[in-house]
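Reading group handout, session on sequence-to-structure problems. Before we discuss, look at one worked example. The prompt was deliberately terse, the way you'd type it at a terminal:

> structure PucR C-terminal helix-turn-helix domain-containing protein

The input record follows.
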Amino acid sequence: MLEWCAELDLPPLVSSESSLVTVLLPEDELGRWTARVSDAVEREGVPARCGIGSPQPPVSGLLSRRQAEQALAVAVADARPVVEFAGLPTQRLILQHLDPAARAALTSPLLPLLDNDATLVLLRSLRVFLSENSSWEAASSQLGIHRHTLRQRMARVEELTGLSVSVTEDRVIAWLALQALQLGDAQ
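And the output record:
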């Protein structure tokens, strides 16, 4: 890391704990740093992974370090040279910290949508509606149905789940629950 700092003519603000090395960089140098680490891993075979936190003022350095550690965990898990915290999907950051009981509690409102083929249509409609940022027109177009049909489906989703698609908090819960269900399928 010190060699890379010298190569890039960066001040060597580096600390090390075990196999974890922290490098503090000016925000405008992150692109060069990312390129150097990627080059070292991909071309030179250096067994390194890098997580990058969001730029912070010096007094908030701990926040950036924690973000970098979360990004590093993803870099290691996905075998990617560099992962930036800002590029991580929020739901992944939230869901990776849930134990199975908490994940089950999160997904419980959506369980009635897993009963049969008819309710699975509602689940898919909900996913599309939320992924289209609650746009009736965009979601109905993507689903190939009329806007009023989508409204009827969302009304049925609300009846079965107790969540309202017109309430932001409920939409967030529904989206995270959908992601947790998908994550459960992948495991």
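Points for discussion. First: Residues 168-186 form the longest helix (19 residues). Second: The chain has two domains: 2-87, 94-186.
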